[in-house]
Amino acid sequence: MINKLKTTVFATIVFSLMIVLPMPASAHHTETHFEDTTKHKIVYQLNKADTDYIDHILFSAGEMLRKYGDDIHIVIAAFGPGLHLLGKQPGRLIKPFHQQRVQSLASYGVEFHACGNTMTSLKWEKKDLLDEATVVRIGVDDVMKLQEQGYTYISW
């Protein structure tokens, strides 16, 4: 939590300086990267709407969070049938208890990424998802990029 607070304060200072200080005409800015001081990073693939499967992934994420606290960053990447976990009105059997766990885990910093391609196939929009969901264009691409950033990939 302290690391996240430090990052937020740093980002605020940098953003403030960008407004105040002129940027050279030759400079261009495409993406900002801050040093991630979190020691552990993990991404769970969630691609099934099976109750036991979802229960295992959410339980595992909670256990990792309990063990590592602020020293872990967890992403749960939902695509295919797994995306229904993040739907306000899921088209598959999703237990309300599981969606409550999504909300609880998110309050502790766990990110839930929703595949935009799957959303398109379901004719869903951002408004159809739980507030805790972050839409990514392509779920599998998101998993690949997270792995490239050092995230450990977990698949059940």
Describe this structure in words.
This protein has 156 residues and is α/β, with parallel strands linked by helices. It has a single domain, classed as Hypothetical Protein Ychn, Chain: A (3-Layer(aba) Sandwich), CATH 3.40.1260. It is built from five helices and five strands. The protein has a five-stranded parallel β-sheet, sandwiched between helices. Helix 2 links the parallel strand 1 and strand 2. Helix 2 packs parallel to helix 3.
How do the strands and helices of this protein lay out in sequence?
Elements: H1 2-20, E1 40-46, H2 51-68, E2 72-78, H3 96-107, E3 111-115, H4 116-122, E4 133-136, H5 139-148, E5 152-154
Helix pairs in contact: 2-3
Read across the widest sheet, the strand sequence of neighbours is 4-3-2-1-5
Portion in helices: 40-55%
Q: And the CATH topology?
A: Hypothetical Protein Ychn, Chain: A
Give the CATH class: Alpha Beta
Q: Give a quick account of the main beta sheet: strands, pairing sense, barrel closure.
A: 5 strands, parallel
Quick one: CATH superfamily?
Answer: DsrEFH-like
CATH architecture annotation name: 3-Layer(aba) Sandwich
